[in-house]
Write a structure and sequence with these properties.
With 242 residues, this protein is mainly alpha-helical. Helices cover 70% and strands 0% of the residues. The longest helix is centred in the last third of the chain and has 27 residues.
Length: 242
């Protein structure tokens, strides 16, 4: 109890906080990899990583302070405008990182109309231009919401819905050419399965009803292998595979 109280006061993340944060960032990066064919440079990956880290950090602060999710939403908005110039619009910011009126107005405008502009611009778009605001916003929002849900939810799998939604949004906003079938398909699925398994094991360990480590690893490996095999065999025969 003393350890938990100390963590709550200092805000230092626990080991479970760090594990969940790592999986949230990794799943978000895999999902945002879908913009590889949209931008002409990999800078969007760095912007996405910063957005995910900021989102997780803001959510951790809200969780430590036991704030309502509406407070987290306000914190995300403030973070978006406070760091937007340094992360995505450094060419317009003062000294490359201090937001000014131009940066704030462009951030607000791109939040509303940037999606339509991205879809109607012939790809690849400028990898150092204004459209970097969009992956930054998606990463920030997904990182904050997913981490807070993961730390407060009793279910081990429900928080996974947000990274899946992010993956779908990136695919819809991206180009017709797939950015990475293995990375976004197989990679995302394996990381998601592993995260759910680890979160489930935490609850089993507390209740004391979990099986041994070797049997759980064996069962998990068999299930993943069966799922991949079924996908490989049946996937090519589903509607729309062309």
């Amino acid at each position: 109890n003393r350890t938990k109280a100390r963590l709550a006061v200092t805000g230092r993340p626990s080991s479970t906080d760090l594990v969940d944060a790592g999986f949230v960032i990794l799943l978000g990066m895999i999902a945002l990899w879908g913009f590889r064919t949209t931008f002409d440079s990999p800078r969007f990956l760095a912007v996405s990583a910063v957005g995910l880290i900021l989102g997780v950090a803001v959510a951790h602060i809200a969780n430590v302070l036991r704030q309502h999710w509406l407070v987290l939403a306000l914190m995300v908005v403030v973070t978006f405008f406070l760091f937007g110039g340094a992360v995505a619009l450094s060419s317009d910011a003062i000294a490359g990182f201090v937001p000014n009126g131009t940066v704030l107005s462009r951030l607000a405008r791109l939040t509303v109309s940037g999606w339509k502009d991205l879809l109607t611009t012939l790809p690849p778009v400028d990898g150092a231009g204004q459209f970097l605001v969009l992956p930054y916003l998606l990463a920030l929002a997904c990182g904050a919401a997913t981490f807070l849900w993961a730390r407060r939810a009793g279910s081990p799998s429900w928080p996974l819905l947000l990274p899946v939604a992010l993956l779908a949004i990136v695919i819809l906003l991206g180009t017709i050419e797939p950015a990475g079938l293995l990375i976004q398909g197989l990679g995302f699925a394996m990381v998601a399965f592993l995260w759910v398994v680890l979160r489930r094991r935490r609850r089993l360990r507390v209740v004391g009803t979990g099986a041994g480590d070797r049997s759980q690893i064996l069962i998990g490996a068999v299930l993943v292998a069966a799922a991949l095999g079924l996908g490989a065999v049946a996937g090519g025969h589903l509607p729309g595979t062309d």
